[in-house]
Write a structure and sequence with these properties.
With 335 residues, the protein is α+β, with helices and mostly antiparallel strands. It has 2 domains: 3-90, Phosphorylase Kinase, domain 1; 97-327, Alpha-Beta Complex (Aminoglycoside 3'-phosphotransferase, Chain: A, domain 2). It is built from 11 helices and 9 strands.
Amino acid sequence: MSDRKQVLREWLNEVLPMSPRRIAPASSDASFRSYFRVWCDDQTHIVMDAPPDKEDCRPFVAIAQAMRTLGLNTPEVLASDLDLGLLLLTDLGSRQYLAELDQQSVPNLYADALEALTRLQVGGDPASSLLPPYDSALLHREMELFREWFLGKLLGLELSADEHHILDQAFAVLANNALAQPRVWVHRDYHSRNLMITDPDNPGVLDFQDAVVGAVTYDLVSLLRDCYIAWPREQVEIWVLDHRARLRALGMTGLEDADQFLCWFDLMGIQRHLKATGIFARLNLRDGKAGYLPDIPRTLGYVLEVANRYPIMADLCRLLRVRGVDSWRPAGFLR
């Protein structure tokens, strides 16, 4: 048994009423965190193992409580040792949205997810000091992952000065678009792999520890133009405008122009999907997690489809096509 697993077992023996009869991996994510399901008596719990030299549990604990206060179904922290990087959490089950989404289930599942997102966006105080700002520096750092890890390291492209300038200009437009929008609490990874089907209080919401105060359309893009599952553009735009109407009815200002809201949403999506493509490349190259590579073509497909409709993104679109990015596929992957 590894030293880390031994530490986990010893800690569980301290915080549980009896020794767990079974411990099994529950899930993993794109970070250094690991999750285990623990059977104790007739209950199950989740243990989050976040090595303290790589992850900080404190934001998770604080944000979980804040989001529960807003009415979101996030895990309750039952016990914690922040110095060890261990949390004992309530178990939201194993029914991930992604596994059960189809044409029949999506209306109800997305209705629940959008209702929960509304509670987050309307209820969270953007002036709160709990969450850091989704500022220009962070937006640019995220997009630089695309340049460094996908174009540079995964594809091995050496860009010319003109091509770098095109990326610089596109990144500036996308960052400014995000900063022009009304500010709300942003989960920052609100998609089908982080939403659990729960009864009652659907959905269960996971992986929120990187939440920020940022653009109103960011989480909407994460959900409706999900890197892991795609829906027809016409349906996506109906969901987007319905969500705008819901926010306006609850008093949110700055959303008067429907066309502007759709533009915000579209350009926000390019920013997010450039970032995600870079992260998927980094997960493969740095962390040995190749499982995200097949999601890159779908993610880049969003970028190209949306960029092609906006003249301000024409140079970016042309660069990606000239460099063959639009036709890139990981080895062994069939679209």
